[in-house]
Target: transketolase
Amino acid sequence: MGAICNGVALHSPGFIPYCATFFVFTDYMRAAMRIAALSEAGVIYVMTHDSIGLGEDGPTHQPVEHLSSFRAMPNIMMFRPADGNETAGAYKIAVARRNTPSVLALSRQKLPQLPGTSIENVERGGYILSDNSNGNRPDVILVGTGSELEIAAKAGEELRKEGKSVRVVSFVGWELFDEQPDAYKESVLPSDVSARVSIEAGSTFGWGKVVGGKGKSIGIDSFGASAPAGKLYKEFGITIEAVVAAAKSLI
Model:
């Protein structure tokens, strides 16, 4: 499937091929995806069931290391949108970038439309979802992607109830954020705010460059398990409570 899409993209630039399957099955088409990146073929990969949130299918079907591995691959856009707005924004960029393949990692579980997301802001890769601080100096910055952005947002609400100034950041596309001017990056992740917490239902590998040496990353650095999604999130510590506790330990 991946090789066919490469052929379509390279032979007929007017066609925009996309292929879709479970995110974990990118292991079977990684060679074709790498060739797409190397050949500058604008293939769009719509990959669902992107985390332990898929539930009872268990660890064989639950991607853990896949997000970080594609973020490490040159010339490929790795998107993990949190809701309909971000999905539309990611797809818009994927269609426009004809010399770069794009991966959209989508959840199995239903996700709410989050206040503060927008189609346009996805172009920045990372952007401020909510913030009650003054002078670009929040007490803590919470960073999330995909289904865990909702968790970060709710954790931010809890911390604000306790009088903390909290910035919540959506990090939907790392590669796009890396392309932004330094001034924009500083406006989102000010260098003098070291209290940062990231949350993503996948490997924490690579998050150090976002949260810094004094920050904390909440994720999954082991294989998953077979159980309902809600139970798995609790067992693996992908929770509002975990984010709040991590934030308090840094403030």
